Amino acid sequence: MTDRIFESFTKMLEELKIVIKRKVKRETPLWHALMFIKQLPFRYNPLLILRRKNLIPWVPNKRSIEIEITTRCSLACFNCDRSIRQAPSDDCMSLEQIEKFVDESIKLNWGWKHIRLTGGEPTLHPQFFEILKIVKRYKEINFYCNVEISTNGYGSQVNEVLSKLPQWICVINSRKKSNINNFCSYNIAPIDLKEYENSDFTKGCWITGICGLGLTKYGYYPCGAGASVDRVFGFDIGQRSLSCVNNLTLREQLRVLCRYCGHYKENYADEKITLEKMSISWQKAYEIYKRKRPQLSVY
Ligand code: SF4
Ligand code: SF4
Question: pLDDT tens, 33-69?
Fold first, then answer.
């Protein structure tokens, strides 16, 4: 019952957002006031405070994207939310797929604010510099788009690539020293815990709201961590075209993915762990993965 009320509330909010977008004329005082609220820092933004308190759902951020160009990594951290250690893979996105992403973005006039290349460890993609050349094509059209790479800074091969990066790329370096880190219990699926089993999973968590969408070899997702749920469980729900990505399709993906993703619990409590913990759904999924990897359709 509570979930149905929450779902109607979510729909109402999304409709309200569309109406506001249509009715409020740009450059009017009301428009400026709304823009001001939107850009307030995390701690003071009333919308973010309400979301963090779980009173309103997160809205996937469709202006930021994390592209998982490879699932290879120089580390294998406990509780990695890309399942690098738990379900290793050699997946790499092809140059054609990166071209497709850039072409779609330009054709649809999609105004990305942030494009972040991730992994695994993105610098281990064998065609890393060719990928940068392709992404630059988008950056030249949308100068204000911030292109970033997210690296663990671990190992000589990684650092050698980092030393050759062009100026226009921002580097987010977590400078990891080992595979033991303070991470969320990604592999404790909310669906396996009594207190969350009846939750409305369509509301997502801060990762889709702040970090934005995920793109992998298997298509678009509401977030990178969710894409990784699909890689292991094999629901095959990646969206193969940017033109299909909207709040409704993203919420449908959240409904499936957040059930298994430990980040969902951060809506309620901020628990960090160092050693590996896994609930029953993940244990089974990894066992099946080890025997036979799910086959997903590619982007
Ligand atoms: S460095 Fe990042 S991607 Fe690699 S295993 Fe650790 S958490 Fe996962
Ligand atoms: S709970 Fe996981 S799958 Fe759901 S939005 Fe957050 S990171 Fe994505």
Answer: 777 777 777 667 777 777 766 667 888 999 999 999 9
What region, left, alpha or beta, does residue 267 occupy, with left being phi > 0 and alpha being psi -120 to 50 degrees?
Answer: alpha
- The CA-atom distances, in angstroms, between 68 and each of 46, 98, 153 are 31, 11, 16
If one residue of 58, 208, 213 were mutated to test the ligand 2 pocket, choosing by the most ligand atoms within 8 A of its CB, it would be 208
Q: What is the pLDDT of residue 197?
A: 83
Element (H, E) at 138: helix 128-141
- Where along the chain do its domains lie? 2-39, 60-299
User: If we measure between CA atoms, which residue out of 133, 131, 121, 110 comes closest to residue 172?
Assistant: 121
Q: Are 179 and 85 in contact (CB under 8 A)?
A: yes
Buried b (16+ CB within 10 A) or exposed e, 149-180: bbbbbbbeebeebeeebeeebeeeeeebeebe
Tokens 């790329």 correspond to what residue? 169
Q: Which residue has the tokens 């709040």?
A: 247
Which atom of ligand 2 approaches the CA of 58 most closely? 5
Please, are residues 149 and 161 in contact by the beta-carbon 8 Å criterion? no
pLDDT (tens digit, 9 = 90+) per residue, 242-281?
Answer: 999 999 999 999 999 999 999 999 887 778 899 999 999 9
Atom nearest to 82 CA in ligand 1: 8
| CB contact set of 51 (below 8 Å; sequence gap of 6+) | 57, 58, 206, 209
Q: What CATH number does the domain located at 60-299 have?
A: 3.20.20
Tell me how far apart the terminal alpha carbons of the chain are, to the nearest angstrom: 37
Q: Which residues contact 5 (CB under 8 A, 6 or more apart)?
A: none
What pLDDT band is residue 5 in, cutting at 50, 70 and 90? low
Q: Is 225 in the pocket of ligand 1 (CB under 6 A)?
A: no
Pairing of strands 64-68, 114-118: parallel
